[in-house]
Amino acid sequence: MTMRTRVPTSPGVRHRRDVDTRGIITKGKPEKYLLRGVVKKTGGRNAQGRISVRHQGGGEKQMLREIDFKRSKHGIPAKVMAIEYDPIRRANIALLYYADGEKRYIIAPLGVNVGESLISGKEADVKSGNALPLADIPVGTPIHNVELRPGKGGQLARGAGTAATIQSKEGQYAAVQLPSKEIRLIDMRCLATVGQVGNPEWKAVSLGKAGRKRHMGIRPSVRGVAMHPGAHPHGGGEGRSGIGMPSPKTPWGKPTLGKKTRHKRKYSNRFIIKDRRIH
């Protein structure tokens, strides 16, 4: 895919740059059978009505699409009937028509087009869009939608343009390098989809105006140094001033930028071979 710029008929369009999806995204309404109601919006507020997540609120109404992360229909071929836009994720989604008549959405892999046939299971070919156990995928193959436990459904490498890579195999586990560069041991019975997630150009999108950000449900962010000291640790001072402390802090006084938040004795630490912070 390439990027698309618009004729500057207004200030908001002048700096707008989008992914050119002409000929890729299928026009028309989504599959009604696979819609699961409207995405619930909280505005960042908890059960007490207090803001627990800042900078959230408003936005357009979004319908939730049911995505098949498990790829559990083994041995049944499916035809890609459409590539569609999903309002709650950066990646596009692909509509599959299975041979037994069932329809399901999956995350659209890069290079998979309408009309192609996909399948999941041990006997599937190592082809982009097919889902196989890690034991049957060759070392060095890019994969996405990787399971952490057999049968639970894909949890890793699901964002647009991301892909994990199988580094090695030994015994019951495969060493997989994740998009964060973390290397983790994963049970070789876990399913993964071959290939990279589509729409890698999304990072080059320029919204063009603040209103598009508000349509996405994202409210403005205010710098801590612009606040008064009662609202943020960085606030206060005469004129323009720095944060006045060795390292930045959250509005609640906790350290940021490098502060480790993962529990030291988390159960899955033993599966991590290389931490994502070590390059």
Automatic annotation (TrEMBL):
Q: Where is the composition biased (Gly residues)?
A: 233-242
In terms of superkingdom, the source organism counts as Bacteria
The UniProt entry, under SUPFAM superfamilies, shows: Nucleic acid-binding proteins, Translation proteins SH3-like domain
Span of domain Large ribosomal subunit protein uL2 RNA-binding:
44-120
Keyword match Signal? no
- Occurrences of domain Large ribosomal subunit protein uL2 C-terminal (ranges): 126-255
- Quote the InterPro entries the UniProt record gives: NA-bd_OB-fold, Rib_uL2_dom2, Ribosomal_uL2, Ribosomal_uL2_bac/org-type, Ribosomal_uL2_C, Ribosomal_uL2_dom3, Ribosomal_uL2_RNA-bd_dom, Translation_prot_SH3-like_sf
Chain residue ranges for the region called Disordered: 225-265
Q: Name one GO biological process term.
A: cytoplasmic translation
Check the record and name the SMART domains matching this protein: Ribosomal_L2 (SM01383), Ribosomal_L2_C (SM01382)
- Residues annotated as coiled-coil are none
Query: Signal peptide span per the entry?
Result: none
What GO CC annotations are associated with the protein? large ribosomal subunit
Q: Per UniProt, what is one Pfam family of this protein?
A: Ribosomal_L2_C
Q: Name one GO molecular function term.
A: rRNA binding
Write out the entry's keywords from A to Z: Ribonucleoprotein, Ribosomal protein, RNA-binding, rRNA-binding
Q: How does it assemble?
A: Part of the 50S ribosomal subunit. Forms a bridge to the 30S subunit in the 70S ribosome.
Q: What does this protein do?
A: One of the primary rRNA binding proteins. Required for association of the 30S and 50S subunits to form the 70S ribosome, for tRNA binding and peptide bond formation. It has been suggested to have peptidyltransferase activity; this is somewhat controversial. Makes several contacts with the 16S rRNA in the 70S ribosome.
Family as reported in the entry's similarity comment: Belongs to the universal ribosomal protein uL2 family.
Name this protein carries in UniProt: Large ribosomal subunit protein uL2
